[in-house]
Amino acid sequence: MTKKVVGQVTVEEKNEIQALFEHRNGLNELAMILTAENETLYEKLVKDMGEIGTKFQGWWDRMGEKYQWESVEGGNWEINFESCEIYLVD
Hints:
The chain is α+β, with helices and mostly antiparallel strands. It has one domain. It is built from two helices and three strands. The protein has helices at residues 11-33, 39-67, and strands spanning 3-8, 76-79, 85-89. It has a three-stranded antiparallel sheet with strand order 1-3-2, with no helix packed on it. The chain starts with a strand and ends with a strand.
């Protein structure tokens, strides 16, 4: 696995993806303890996970388009929340 810096985002852009990242992680943790027996809550969780996943991917798509980051087949981007740097990981 290699990792190299391919760009940087603004603090505001970083804050947006960090909030989505933390929200997604919280939903994933909830999914580990929630059972389908609580149907109403389970359906809301699945809906929320879908919406957050779409927003999360949308942020990466928008930023990748805006900044024209290098990409490779099978690779993905990661962000360093402290430095706002974007890494290409393959």
